[in-house]
Amino acid sequence: xxxxxxxxxxxxxxxxxxxALRGVSFAVERGEVFCLLGRNGAGKTTLLRILAxxxxxxxxxxxxxxxxxxxxxxxxxxxISVLPQEGRPMMMLSAYDHIRLMCQIRGMAxxxxxxxxxxxxxxxxxxxHRKKLSADLSGGLRQRVLLCMALTxxxxxxxxxxxxxxLDPLGRRQVWALVRRLTREGVTVLLTTxxxxxxxxxxxxxxxxxxxxxxxxxxxxxxxxxxxxxxRVLVDDLAVNGNGPQILRPQSxxxxxxxxxxxxxxGWRVSFQPPSLEDAFIRLVGGxxxxxxxx
Amino acid sequence: MxxxxxxxxxxxxxxxxxxxxxxxxxxxxxxxxxxxxxFIFVFAGGDTALPALVGAIVLSLAFVGLFIAQSVxxxxxxxxxxxxxVASPVSxxxxxxxxxxxxxxxxxxxxxxxxxxxxxxRPIGALEFVAVIGISxxxxxxxxxxGYAIGASTKNTRRANSLPQxxxxxxxxxxxxxxxxxLLPPLLQPxxxxxxxxxxxQLSKYYFGLLSLSGFEIAFGWAYLIAFxxxxxxxxxxxxxxxxx
Lengths: 295, 245
Fold this sequence. Notes:
heterodimer; A: alpha/beta; Rossmann fold; 4-stranded antiparallel sheet; 25% strand; B: mainly alpha; 78% helix
């Protein structure tokens, strides 16, 4: 496998003095979905923008397709595309115009631009809305317009910054399916998300960033392993005392057995949940919050 | 080169299409600087309205140039299109030219119409006509630079909207653009002519035969406008970043 992205000891301090990133190192292979996770303001977007050649790093080194992001951005830019965080289409411009003009800005001839626009709009269920102004589209449809704009050029590396914000569950799954299809075609995807379910579903590997520093790098399975392998047991005693389900964290097989026997005796419903990425995330990031609070 | 011009053209179209698709809004926006001419015509008569119309043509291009600040700011911080374009083969020069073309597309109906009215009322030679176009374009370029510098350095949405409008009043309505510089107290006249819009209006009025200027005043006017545009260009190059620092 070839490394599409290589990051070594990367750091960024903004001109105002805010340190956004420090000591970030990782590599992303071709066709991989690599996820950047972290709380708000952790430095995910800063990292994504550096790799997408939109922002200069302060220290360290980053290369995309073997080209340095600072010294050779032109060699990178015709092979990538970006869906920026919190982008918005122009209210008084139609969905169709947005996508067709982006095709033409990226160098397509008129006929090709028209074909590509229709292809993308049909794929994202936007075709029936093609004449509507963006102002008349729902938040989810607007996000799809932006996604289509990012996909006009058939990039080899796609940067998605919170791509499913505002999408309904079906729209979100549509994006997931698209990301999976793109990676099957060899496209590499670097995405940031707040939805841990999304990362769990899509990420081949992920890095968790906290206060600008990487605190975990590995696969989703490895992250879950860090959650302590703790299985949660949900006991629904709603019928008994009207409360919601109780979440128990048994520490041994014996404790599990006791819970099950008690539930059977009382007629409570019981279900088991394996550790999730959310558990791992909370344990990893929560640890640093706890440490901060005690100091 | 052809590709870069193509990029610029479509970026300009992208930026101006919302206005071009709405002719009523286009009329309101492009005729904004011509509104005072109407009142001058009604209350002071045609003789005073003609110089005011010359001033309005000059200002029309200056205003739209200044208002590029909003496109630059909103494309960067609100729509985030600039981020999309930075991470693409589009060059910063194409982007800047594209947004500038957009301002010309928006203002062109009003400018063409006013030139037609003016030329019918006060026919001038081809050379004089080219001179007026040249003056308007130099001022437009200078204002585009100012607008670009404001849009690129403003971090505040409110200011991105208000700053070009305040500057528009300072540069357009206060100095002798619509009215004659002779109406100002003699002490203020030299200072008023340091405002580039006033200088451009003086020169244009001269070429339309509505004002007499000495050879020195004409040469100074041209040199002043060109120097102003160059300085604004240098400030913009320093202020505007394609890749954020």
